[in-house]
Specification:
- This protein has five helices and three strands.
- It has about 130 residues and is mainly alpha-helical.
- It has two domains: about 60 residues, Multidrug-efflux Transporter Regulator, Chain: A, Domain 2 (Orthogonal Bundle); about 50 residues.
- The protein has a three-stranded antiparallel β-sheet with strand order 1-3-2.
- Helix 3 packs across helix 4 and helix 4 runs antiparallel to helix 5.
- The protein starts with 6 loop residues before the first strand and ends with a helix.
- About 10% of the residues are buried.
- The mean pLDDT is about 90.
Length: about 130
Amino acid sequence: MPETSRLSFKEMCVKFDVTPRTLRYYEYIELLSPEKEGRSRFYGSREVARMTLILRGRRFGFSLEEIRQWLLMYRQKGTRPQLQTFLSLADRQLAELEKQRAELDGTIDDLRALRATTETELSKLD
């Protein structure tokens, strides 16, 4: 891999807007495996792609362990099992997000109703 396509530890933190602690933790739990030269770490295209998937998975609500297992699956079993597992995880997470959205919609409706009632009560005091 050419030098120019590798990111330093600091560049990786900046590119993904993560703290050094986060990046070190992802390495510790084996989500990332940077190249090491002395005490320096360098991240190639594979690690950049993995970081993109990790952050996307976190945004979708997957646990770090689920993401780690999913990434590991590709190396152990190949593309088809990995994609099938992702579909299963995605279906489960979509159901959970839909449930959370319904709960949030209900909470918003309740708060609006309470606000309207309070506004009415306040106008009666004038």
